[in-house]
């Protein structure tokens, strides 16, 4: 039974986040998905971020709406970018282009500790209708909604 790691801040649960989570569950098959949710202490973003508990509640709501059973996943607090992937046994880590360097770092540390590297599953960004990736920053700025639909005309 595969053990899959995926992580993020999940400020505005958007289509890019959904794609990562769906991929993690697909790879896990009958195994378990471990979703690391960035702690308040770890955040350094250019826009305001909701607190951990509110982001956790929204994340759980969306996972439930996606139809994944409660016993197939767990959400844990990430106090550092690597989380439990350094010490615990995982088979896969699902990453976006933004988090790919972290997966490389995790595997480097794991190899130094004599552990087998994680298989990195790379998931491309989901593009908004303007061809630019959907991101929580863009949603916070009011440029797009969580599905990548433009909310206003953006000056070039």
Automatic annotation (TrEMBL):
NCBIfam families: cyt_tran_rel (TIGR00125), PRK00777.1 (NF001985). Residues 6-140 form the Cytidyltransferase-like domain. It comes from Methanosarcina baikalica. Keywords: ATP-binding, Coenzyme A biosynthesis, Cytoplasm, Nucleotide-binding, Nucleotidyltransferase, Transferase. It comes from the Archaea. Reversibly transfers an adenylyl group from ATP to 4'-phosphopantetheine, yielding dephospho-CoA (dPCoA) and pyrophosphate. The keyword Nucleotide-binding applies. Gene3D superfamilies: HUPs. The keyword Oxidoreductase does not apply. This is Phosphopantetheine adenylyltransferase. Belongs to the eukaryotic CoaD family. Its EC number is 2.7.7.3. It is found in: Cytoplasm. Pathway: Cofactor biosynthesis; coenzyme A biosynthesis. It catalyses: (R)-4'-phosphopantetheine + ATP + H(+) = 3'-dephospho-CoA + diphosphate. InterPro entries: Cyt_trans-like (IPR004821), PPAT_arch (IPR023540), Rossmann-like_a/b/a_fold (IPR014729). GO terms for molecular function: nucleotidyltransferase activity. Its main location: cytoplasm.
